[in-house]
Amino acid sequence: IFMVLSLLSIVYGALRCNILAIRIKYDDYDVRVKPAAYLCIFLWRSFEIATRVTVLVLFGSVVRIWVFLVVLLNFLGFCFYPWVLFWLSKSPFPENIEKELSRVGTTIVLCLLTFLYAGINMFCWSAVHVELSDPDLISKSQNWYRMTVYYIVRLMENAFLLLMWYIYRTDFYLYVCAPMLVLQLLIGYCMGIFFMLVFYQFCHPCKKLFSSSITEAL
């Protein structure tokens, strides 16, 4: 019961962040989110987060040390990714975050922001993407390429972790139909991707402002 309540609260938070991100990106327009959009986001985030957490738990139950390496690589990769993009852009260091902050204080704030960004992306696609070279510190453009790469890599990673769990599973899972569980989790993650595609293709409140639809981008 507590796990279900925790999942629902996290999914609700992800849903609210999605809506907030849309309103921030398109603050010049009157954004009206329809019930179908709420439903798609809820199903998208539910399948995505639930399957991701389950995969990590299963993998960690059989190879407890390696799961820390997987989590650490994910966290560090997403944490340094905005800084790498910022370094490649050769933009000046952000100074307009808060006038009262010194350069050290600004650096600490940016590090905390990237920590939060990395923590979210370990489990689901972030609704707001950090861009340190932008004055608002977030990217307001819709990048289909990043999203496609993210979900392809994440699906492959989940499949690999499930394969390792299947190979090294213990007698604790003797009465569990392992192939069926693996198939259900992979289908569950694909269902999350499916509802994400439905949302961006049909239910996004600002889909008319996209330069290209997600099907054209794919």
From TrEMBL:
Pfam families: XK-related. Its main location: membrane. It comes from the Eukaryota. It is a multi-pass membrane protein. GO terms for cellular component: plasma membrane. The chain crosses the membrane at residues 6-24, 65-88, 108-128, 148-168, 180-202. Keywords: Membrane, Transmembrane, Transmembrane helix. The keyword Nucleus does not apply. Belongs to the XK family. PANTHER family: ENDOPLASMIC RETICULUM MEMBRANE ADAPTER PROTEIN XK, MEMBRANE TRANSPORT PROTEIN XK FAMILY MEMBER. This is XK-related protein. It comes from Dicrurus megarhynchus. The lineage of its organism: Eukaryota, Metazoa, Chordata, Craniata, Vertebrata. The gene is Xk_1.
